[in-house]
Give the backbone structure.
Amino acid sequence: MSKLMSNKLHVAVFVLPALFLFVCMGVIPLLVTGYYGLFDYDGIGEKVFLGLQNYIDLFTKDAYFTKAIGNSFILAAGSLFVQIPIALLLALILANGVKGESFFRTIYFLPTVISSMVIGQLWCKIFNSEGLLNAILRLFGAQGDTAWLVNPDTAYLSTVVPAVWQSIGYHMLILYAGIKNISQEYYEAAKIDGATGVKAAVKITIPLLMPTIKVCATFALVGSLRVYDLVYVMTAGGPNHVSEVPATLMFDNLFKKGLYGYGSAQAFFIVFECLFFSFLLNQVFKKYEENASAI
């Protein structure tokens, strides 16, 4: 009994500092943000209690917020259904031991270590009316003077492309490590049954990789719902707010318009949205993880 209590004490000694930092740096600021969202407050003067009115106004009076949420859903869909599949395909190819495996692994991961501010500037040059994309289009005889970032029809999608592209290597590396961690005994047994190549990947690798895929999908989803820097660098939410996402609106309300209470309500909603959809995603993956455990 004394030994058990001693072990618990050791665990507590190591866990409590991290727990303390998490509560101080995460939980308390979140609760304070939610609290400020209940007031009409400019960050300096007197707070006027509004109850849930700020949260109601997000969906009833704000002309841009629902559009911003829709934009974040578009990026989330691109991340889940384009970014993750491409990352998985690259991970499967590299994990099979292709020539130059280390080189390609490094190259694919390189965009992840570059600042999103730098990535945004680079892609601004590509989407410029005199940029690389229009030059390529002119080579093929297409109209090559489109101002992609100031055209309301293309501005937001022009930010989605680099956002999806930048993190492909990040998820590829996680999935690659997951594949390498799968025991070779599964493949040896499958080889006896004639399951190799694509069939082995579909029947063995992907099912066993589901917990890792869930982690990548969660990271991609949460990152999409709270995206800010890349969109702000490339379009700043324009033109005419068509490329706004919740985080850019929150920043403008908090630091430009001085709507501290309303901006806090937006910030709290973003956190709640991330938690809610992460929970839904976890429920979706439960069935696949159960099937993987049965292999």
Observations:
- The mean pLDDT is 89.
- The radius of gyration is 23 Å.
- The beta strands are 39-40, 48-49.
- Residues 237 and 244 are 4 Å apart (CA to CA).
